[in-house]
Amino acid sequence: MMDYTDRHFRHLIRLLSKQTLLYTEMVSANAVAHERQFHQTHYRQQHPEACLDTMLQNYNIDYIATRFLAQGTAQEGPSILQLGGSDPDLLYQAAQAVSELSQRSYSDYHCNYTALNLNCGCPSPKVAGKGCFGAALMDDPVLVRDLCHALYEGGQQQYPVTVKCRIGTDTKRSWKDDNNNNNYDEALYQDLCHFIETVAAGGIVQEFTIHARIAVLTKSFSPADNRKIPPLKYHLIQRLVQDYPHLRFILNGGIESIPQVQDQLHRVPGLRGVMVGRAFCADPWRFSGADALLYHSNDTEVPLHRWHILQQYAQYADAQEQQYDPTTIRRFLIKAVTGLFAGEPNSKKYRIALDEIAGLPKKGIHTPVSELLLEAATKHLSEETLFRSPLESYELQTQGQNKDLVQEWQADRQVIL
C-alpha cells in the first residue's frame, strides 16, 4: 500500500509473521530509472577511467536503495517489490537497479526480493489517469505482457514476475449496469480471461493477485470509492482457479481477518493465497497468529505478545536512527507501530504519545527512541493488552469481540504523517 508498507512497516510485520509474503509500496519505475541514470552519468563524469564493474559497485546506488528499493534487514524473508509504469525501457532499467543492488553484498543496504510485481490494479487518477499505468494497463494486455518481459530481462532473468490487477475496468461497461446481472458478470469474466491468457502467453507470468472489484477510472471516482462501491465478485476468481489450473491466483479485496482468510482458502481449493491490505495496516496484531493458524508453524516460532514485538522493533528503530538522521526518519519509524494496539483501551492516548515522540528530534531532544516507545506503552496500556498472546487474540476475533477497526483507522491515520 502506498505510504504504508514501507521497509519499517514490513520489518514490524516480519516480527509478527515469518511466513507471510510481503509486498512493498508501489515504486515508480520512472523514478528509479531516472535516479539510476543521473547517478551513473555523474559517476562517469567524475571517474571516466572506471570500468563497468567498478562503476556498478561504486556509483551512488545507495541513494536509490535508501529512497526506493531497500529492505529493512537482510532477514525480511519472502517479499515482492511492486513496480508501476507503462514504459518497457524504464521498467527494464528499474529491474536492472534491483539486480545491481542485490549483488552488492558488502553494502549497508539489503535488496533480496523474492519476485518483481507489475501493478495493474491501482485506480488512482494520478496513476491510472494522468500516469496511464496501474489499472489502466488492464485495457492493453499485450503491453502488460511486454512490460513483464522487460522486468524479467532487466532483472537478469533471476526474479519471477507477477501481476497485481483487478477483475476489470469500466472502460467497456459501467459498473452501474451490474445489478447482479449474469450477462454482465459473464462479459466481465470473458474480458478478464482474455487479459490473463494474453499476459500469461508470454511465458513469464504464472501468478496473478486479483482484487475482486472492477476499477472505475472516471475522474469523479476516488480511490476510496473504488475500494467500497463496486461489488466484490469473489466467484470470478474462483472460476479462474478452476479454469486455469496451470496458473496461480491470489484473491484480494475486502478480507479483514484470519477467519475470512481461512474461509476463502476452504471455499476455493487450489487458491494460491489471500492478500490482506488495509486491515493489516489498521490492526497488524489481528494477524499475529497467521504462522500458527495458516502455515502450522511451531509454537516457538509464534510471537509471544505485543510487548515482545515492541521491544524487538524498538531495537531496530535505535539501529535505524544510528544510521540515518533522526529528524528525517523518526516519523517513518513511529508511523509503522501506530496500529499495533488498535482497538485496545487507551490506544488513542498511546497514538497521541507516539505523535509527540515523532516530533522530538526536531526539538533537539535526542532520548533513544526505544526508551520512548516502551515508556509510552507501559504508561498508557494495560498488562492484559501488552501480554495477550496471538491465539488469545484470535479467539476474540472468532467470538466477534473485535470491532471494525479499518474504518477507525481510516479516520485516525492522519495523526502521524
UniProtKB/TrEMBL annotation:
Residues 1-363 form the DUS-like FMN-binding domain. Keywords: Flavoprotein, FMN, NADP, Oxidoreductase, RNA-binding, tRNA processing, tRNA-binding. InterPro entries: Aldolase_TIM (IPR013785), DUS-like_FMN-bd (IPR035587), DusA (IPR004653), tRNA_hU_synthase_CS (IPR018517). Pfam families: Dus. Its cofactor is FMN. GO terms for molecular function: flavin adenine dinucleotide binding; tRNA binding; tRNA dihydrouridine synthase activity. CDD domains: DUS_like_FMN. The keyword Cell membrane does not apply. PROSITE patterns: UPF0034. The keyword Transport does not apply. Gene3D superfamilies: Aldolase class I (3.20.20.70). This is tRNA-dihydrouridine synthase A. It comes from Fistulifera solaris.
